[in-house]
Amino acid sequence: xxxxxxxxxxxxAKPTIRRMLQETQLSxxxxxxxxxxxxxxxxxxxxSMSGIYHLSVDxxxxxxEEVLSLGIPAVLLFGVPDPANKDExxxxxxxxxxxxxxxxxxxxxxxEDLVIITDLCLCGYTSxxxxxxxxxGKVENDETLELLDxxxxxxxxxGADIVAPSGMMDGMVGAIRSAxxxxxxxxxxxxSYAAKYSSSFYGPFREAAHSAPQFGxxxxxQMDPANAREALREVGLDxxxxxxxIMVKPALAYMDxxxxxxxxxxxxxxxxxxxxxYGMVKAAAGQGWIDERAVTLELLTGFKRAGADLLIxxxxxxxxxxxxx
Length: 325
Ligand code: PBG
Fold this sequence. Notes:
There is one protein chain. The chain is 39% helix and 18% strand. The protein has 11 helices and 12 strands. It has an 8-stranded parallel beta barrel, surrounded by 9 helices. A two-stranded antiparallel ribbon has the order 6-7. It binds ligand PBG. Residues 119, 121, 123, 131, 166-167, 202, 205-206, 211, 218, 274-275 line the site of ligand PBG.
């Protein structure tokens, strides 16, 4: 049967019927808000990311209150250490008194309920800016795992609910799972940056986290944007190693990957709409070329329609506000 028996416009006739037939719904419960914690005092807007701030630990508490009052269930925390504390091994990353650990403790004191997810990587902490130890000019995989284990345990001790390894080292999820279990943190979950692409959309973030590689690039560990089947292998391995939540990153240029993973696996799936995606929307909206609210909600609806359950976005606070209006 086709036209004139069928007229799909009947289902679009008025707002109430459109609402009834809507297949995908955005919810505040889907949102994860990234936070950048710094030493010292104050809040400084990050030049490459309008509306996003470097927050000192005391300022973090106000931010958490706002996040909670908006109903956002989770934050993804990045510690941004003092450059003077960086070294070859990124040892500040597992310092119990480090910026990430102190920030987690402060957030935990403000709220028992908020889900604290910590980004678990070395690139913001190493003098060379790579996500692992360097041996003969190359990023060494297996020795890096030992460092990731220590960082994971230090985040768990500080009070993190979920650790999110983002360095794309082989075996990282399994290593971290064993380390957490051995140290009595069987309840701490792992959200793996399973399909993380070597993307040019990370530019603004690297300025924010002072984490740009000082030589070379990340193509020997992050994925080639040309590959989709490889993403399924990455995800399959991370699931075997014990990942609780899987992530695709970036989101916008990788919606096919979100869809493929959703079709193949049953794990909760997050996507990370990264700094460059945020920047494009902010810049175009700033010029008056697009409607920021409408475009942002359309993008996030697209990610969910593609198959994502959880949305990591710098727009989270605005979105929560828009959804409750
Ligand atoms: C660190 C990390 C990066 C991002 C999150 N964790 C950058 C990178 O791999 O260089 C990017 C986030 C963003 O662009 O918003 N491994």
